[in-house]
DNA sequence: AAGTCGGGGGA
DNA sequence: TCCCCAGACTT
């Protein structure tokens, strides 16, 4: 047969079972579930894109403490926004968040256009699923979401073949999500779908015994729940090399360069980076011919989703460097200021600090001396 | 339609 | 180690 039969469960029956499950087993105490303003929901949804809840929570709390409303965020500098984003990844999210805040203030009078899915999705960083999530969660109006959790639940329930990254598969999943989404209790419904996918219908070890849909789930009926949704066809990822110049002046400050606004680590500060040692030496020869080179540090690898970057830090010292230029600056590792740093660079700069500085404000030190 | 963006966590 | 995760954007 070429056609899927209609829904296994009537839409209303699905909703009733899901909401009953949610009352008992769903998550009701996440930080963004309190005071569900469009602003708070929006920030949480952006942070949660491709990022798990446990990772997001501390970032969300810090962000709200510093930027309690969209006006505060719009008034902030991009550097400060990216500083609070450092370590969370996908930095375009942080840039888009900042840009969208300014758009909301400048063009929407400081209020999110939650009455219009199209207007929400027109804001940078908000796609179709996030737009639906913000509307549903902050207003309770009917809106359809399709994130990774919902995709997994629906792909299993209906045994939808194919990788969800393929447009045909995604269209099918959108249609299913549209079919099951109710007119009422949409806040709970959307949260329940995500909770079901994140906990019970998890990727690795779905707990089908406890699932309210185990009598209707086609993947479970076949004993193939682990096979859905199909995973992305894999490709070997290449390794690239980078020489990073760790140039310190006699005060111990380190020369940083700002990355181009778009692309890898866009807008973040990093070390001057070269394809190889020759490039690094050539740059030094031109910009700081009197610098004293030290031996290269041992290389380490930073892994991205589509390539590995083998980084070789090359320390050098200089007493004075003129004409630092527009997109360069000196950075004091012992008095770090609020800028966005590329993750491996942040680690390198922290390793420059002596162990015995004054006690850090947050008690998170791994290895305490003594 | 395919490629790009990242760090963390689980298995 | 490998794979994936509350996707969106660019080409």
From TrEMBL:
SUPFAM superfamilies: DNA-glycosylase, Nudix
GO biological processes: base-excision repair; mismatch repair
Textual note on the cofactor: Binds 1 [4Fe-4S] cluster.
Protein EC: 3.2.2.31
Cofactors: [4Fe-4S] cluster
Function description: Adenine glycosylase active on G-A mispairs. MutY also corrects error-prone DNA synthesis past GO lesions which are due to the oxidatively damaged form of guanine: 7,8-dihydro-8-oxoguanine (8-oxo-dGTP).
Name of the protein this chain belongs to: Adenine DNA glycosylase
């Amino acid at each position: 047969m070429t056609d899927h039969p209609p829904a296994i469960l009537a839409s209303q029956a699905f909703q009733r079972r899901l909401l009953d499950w949610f009352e008992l087993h769903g998550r009701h105490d996440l930080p963004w579930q309190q005071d569900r303003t469009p602003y708070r929901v929006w920030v949480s949804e952006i942070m949660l894109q491709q990022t798990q809840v446990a990772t997001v929570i501390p970032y969300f709390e810090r962000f709200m403490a510093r930027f309690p409303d969209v006006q505060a965020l719009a008034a902030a500098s991009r550097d400060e926004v990216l500083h609070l984003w450092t370590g969370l990844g996908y930095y375009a999210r942080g840039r888009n968040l900042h840009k969208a805040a300014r758009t909301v203030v400048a063009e929407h009078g400081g209020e999110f256009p939650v009455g219009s899915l199209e207007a929400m999705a027109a804001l940078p960083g908000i796609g179709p699923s996030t737009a639906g999530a913000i509307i549903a969660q902050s207003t309770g109006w009917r809106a359809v979401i399709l994130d990774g959790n919902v995709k997994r639940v629906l792909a299993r329930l209906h045994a939808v073949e194919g990788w969800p990254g393929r447009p045909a598969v995604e269209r099918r999943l959108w249609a299913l999500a549209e079919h099951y989404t109710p007119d009422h209790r949409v806040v709970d419904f959307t949260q329940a779908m995500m909770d079901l996918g994140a906990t019970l219908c998890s990727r690795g070890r779905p707990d089908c015994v406890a699932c309210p849909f185990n009598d209707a789930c086609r993947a479970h009926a076949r004993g193939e729940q682990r096979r859905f949704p199909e995973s992305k066809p894999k490709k070997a990822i290449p390794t690239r090399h980078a020489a990073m110049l760790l140039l310190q002046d006699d005060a111990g400050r380190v020369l940083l360069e700002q990355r181009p606004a778009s692309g890898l680590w866009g807008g973040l500060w990093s070390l001057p980076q070269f394809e190889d040692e020759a490039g690094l030496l050539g740059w030094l020869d031109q910009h700081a011919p009197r610098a004293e080179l030290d031996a290269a540090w041992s290389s380490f690898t930073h892994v991205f989703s589509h390539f590995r970057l083998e980084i070789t830090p090359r320390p050098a010292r200089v007493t004075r460097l003129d004409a630092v230029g527009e997109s360069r600056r000196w950075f004091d590792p012992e008095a770090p200021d609020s800028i966005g740093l590329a993750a491996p660079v942040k680690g390198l700069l922290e390793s420059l600090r002596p162990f015995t500085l004054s006690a850090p404000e947050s008690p998170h030190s791994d290895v305490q001396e003594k």
